[in-house]
TrEMBL record:
Keywords from the named record: Hydrolase, Metal-binding, Metalloprotease, Protease, Zinc
Pfam families from the UniProt entry: Peptidase_M48 (PF01435)
Domain of life: Bacteria
Protein name (database record): M48 family metalloprotease
Length: 229
């Protein structure tokens, strides 16, 4: 039993660390956000709410300058001030921003936040176990190898979540009569908007799939729904 104690402690530590992280994020979001008030976006959000058969979709503005969307662990949806400012400046359309909201709704509906909590805790224990095993054969380097392996696993799981949220958003946008064209158009703009750089060849190391692969997956879904060859 004693030999499993470090793994158990690592698992408990992962759960506590995740809980603390979500508590800190919730406090910051409470302090730095307010409800979105935009007629054009509200009209699109009503369409999506009707498609989901719910009364309304509430979206909040998170007062940070970066361009991003966020699904908080408590289920709230946020757009950053930077993203909203890009929309107000005409760099992003209302429909494109609605596709971000649909994507974040996908993360909430598919339970990705809870899944990440479980994964994070399990990976923390697995990292500890790998470090112990590899460390017996390769002293001092074992933890580095274990950390690298867990980073790759975390990125892979995150990319899976992104594909799932993309598919959810595509289905919702189609059902709401908005279509997937704005979703695809936004992907073409995102790198320039966010200032991101990086080749497609290294995308497997990243937490998000390559843009071209995400667009291809959405187009495949859309063709299947419309019956086109």
């Amino acid at each position: 039993m004693l030999k499993f104690t470090p793994l158990l402690l690592a698992l408990i530590y992962g759960l506590v660390a995740w809980r603390f992280s979500t508590w800190r994020l919730k406090r910051e979001l409470d302090e730095k956000s307010s409800e979105l008030a935009d007629p054009a976006l509200h009209a699109l959000m009503r369409k999506m709410a009707q498609a989901l058969d719910i009364e309304r979709i509430r979206v909040n503005i998170y007062e940070i300058p970066t361009i991003n969307g966020l699904a908080a662990p408590d289920g709230r949806i946020f757009l950053t001030r930077g993203f909203y400012n890009a929309y107000r400046a005409g760099k992003v359309t209302a429909e494109e921003l609605a596709s971000v909201i649909a994507h974040e709704l996908g993360h909430v509906a598919l339970g990705h936040s809870r899944r990440r909590m479980i994964d994070f805790s399990g990976q923390n224990a697995l990292r500890m176990g790998l470090s112990m095993v590899i460390g017996r054969f390769i002293p001092f380097i074992g933890p580095l190898i274990a950390n690298a392996a867990m980073s790759l696993l975390t990125a892979k799981l995150s990319r899976k979540d992104e594909y799932e949220a993309d598919a959810y958003a595509a289905a919702l946008l189609s059902k709401a009569g908005i279509g997937v064209a704005p979703q695809i158009a936004l992907f073409h703009k995102l790198e320039a908007l966010s200032g991101a750089r990086g080749g497609e060849s290294t995308a497997w190391l990243h937490s998000h799939p390559a843009t071209a692969e995400r667009i291809s997956a959405i187009r495949t879904l859309d063709k299947g729904w419309s019956g086109r060859d």
